[in-house]
Amino acid sequence: MTRRYRMARPEEHRALMVQDAQAFGDSTTSVSIDRSVARTRVEELRVLEEDGNRLGLLLARGQPVRWGGRPVPASQVSGLSVGAEHRGRGVATELLRAYLGEVHERGAAISTLFPAAVQLYRRAGYEYAGTLTLYEAAARHLPVGWPDGWRALPVPADDPAPLQERFARVAAGRSGQVDREADWWRQFLLADRGSGPPQVFLVDGPDGPDGWAILAVSSDVSASEVRTSVQVVDWGAASEAGWRSLLTLAAGFSSLEASVHWKGPDPEPLALLVAEQDIRQLRQDRWMARVVDVPGAFAARGYPSGLRGRITIGVSDDTCPWVDGTWTIEVDGGEGKAVRVGDDAEVTTTAAGLAALFAGYHDPRDLATLGVVRGLDQAGVDFLRAMHAGPKPWSPDYY
Q: What pTM was estimated for this model as a whole?
């Protein structure tokens, strides 16, 4: 029997969305499938078939991801599903292998995803690279008081342009942040999820545009109480006054006894603006990354401008043979490069370990202690720590 990896065809778009929903136990009502079809382009779907039968489905998006202040060419696995009758036959592994070969040909340097099955992706060379953390605070506990000259302006939820402009100023300082295009805003952040469009605000100060907020307000009514939730779909600000304005905007729902939920880094810097320990962490998801193109990945990302050094690493990679081998990674004046070399390396790792070294989410000493990276001495630890100086990678986007 012959298996074939291919792009999805337009006439099977809806059937694939039904297949994907069934695999994950999601709703297959017409309304739910309509939404899935609307937010998923058929060009993003990949199929593994055997003698004409669809075995598995992979949804691949293609947005750059910022690392060290620069966009790195990337691809996101937004879904991978295998029919119940085909599981246990290596379909997911084969799908991933073919997908990685395709996106490498298309110029991706890394791939990122939120794992439903960690060991599957780790075997394919992915490793934890950052977090998405959900926080909660009572609206009445957030600071109140608009800074002088600051205001929030409500705007329609159908134009991502002013949001993109403000986001670009904030995202430059994040590692792990998807570099959103207009369709990303429309599909993931501004879309009506069945209860109406979200509320969108632009925050401006005396010197001009600064921040934004996308809010979805809902109430849960029971026999004994009404619980109001303010979900911050997305927000950000470029300044202290901008963030104080956003917190004041959220605090305005205190008359409803509302709880405010948002996604942020760990630790959450907004705790510095709240008087007491009123911010609570509800949950944290770890997402994963994989290096698809070693020279491309290490050349595209940014580094501290004062860092100068190098490290040679031997990488074992059964999934992507073009990654397998020994590489010297060198950083100088904010620029980096990776060059394949023929010498044996004292420092060795797997493809997953290389992803961890690229990401900087885990401390290199921990990677060495737990055997993810072998042969790493103190000089190597110091160099890798300096390479990742700054906040840990995180993402507010679940894809």
A: 0.94
